[in-house]
Design goal:
alpha+beta, 4 helices, about 20% helix, single chain, globular, six-stranded antiparallel sheet, about 120 residues, OB fold (Dihydrolipoamide Acetyltransferase, E2P)
Length: about 120
């Protein structure tokens, strides 16, 4: 159910490392809890984040939720296509990245969960 190539947070974000960057999105579990996503507010490129900082909001027909940085680092890219078409998250949450971040040295990756640990968390 949860792709094994991703890492997960207890706040229901996923992280995909690719070289010096990490892409971040929300999990399928989060999307199901939210319902139909209708709006995303994402940050600016260049913003420095600390692990746990709010980097944006996601709005569904049911609620508005904050998005949290899974690691500390600098935002290197924002998925503007997703911001224009946030409903994409509804059909492909694990393929819909929101931000790319260049993690700081010792950014907190060790606290991320693997797919089995995240599946256990969401039982």
């Amino acid at each position: 159910m949860y792709p094994p190539d991703l890492k997960y947070t207890k706040d229901h974000e996923w992280v995909r490392r690719a070289g010096a960057e990490a892409r971040v999105g929300i999990t399928e579990y989060a999307q199901k809890q939210l319902g139909d996503v209708v709006y995303l507010e994402l940050p600016e490129v260049g913003q420095q984040l600390r692990k746990g900082d709010v980097f944006g909001t996601i709005e569904s027909v049911k609620a508005v939720s904050e998005l949290y940085a899974p690691v500390s680092g600098v935002i290197t890219a924002v998925n503007s296509t997703l911001a224009e078409r946030p409903e994409t998250v509804n059909t492909d949450p694990h393929g819909s990245w929101m931000i790319a971040i260049r993690p700081d040295e010792g950014a907190g990756d060790s606290e991320l969960l693997d797919a089995a640990q995240y599946a256990e968390l969401t039982k």
